[in-house]
Amino acid sequence: MLTTFHADEHVLRALRAGAAGFLLKDTPPAEIVAAVHRVAAGDPVLSPAVTQQLIEHVAGAGQDLRRSRGRDLLDRLNDREREVALAVGEGKSNAEIGGALYMSVATVKTHVSRILTKVDLNNRVQIALLTHDAGLLDGNAP
Hints:
Layout: E1 2-3, H1 8-16, E2 21-24, H2 29-40, E3 45-46, H3 48-74, H4 79-89, H5 94-101, H6 105-118, H7 124-134
Parallel strand pairs: 1-2, 2-3
Helix pairs in contact: 3-7, 4-6, 4-7, 5-6
């Protein structure tokens, strides 16, 4: 396909319809000819701008999936456990969490253990990754 349009919907629709190549009209003529030969030989061809756009689309879709999965897992927690999970995600120690949330270190440890059990994780690093994936650390808390 040779087009001036490189919006996601055009690229994806063309590829789903069976296009083996997608070039923008600003591609130099010699590259268009080379691309036709590569497609005829069975190799897919995409303009660099289209490749970048698809990479961003796929990366974004993966992020959306991780965010959705992370939020689903965090929905298993009560409000206090969620506060502790966020503090773990921020890299705070048990003592720092206790001080910030007005609870003993033993209580923080209990909450961390419950979080690990409820969301089927093995350690604090995984809790931190979960809060990041869910978007809790970027101001988009569920």
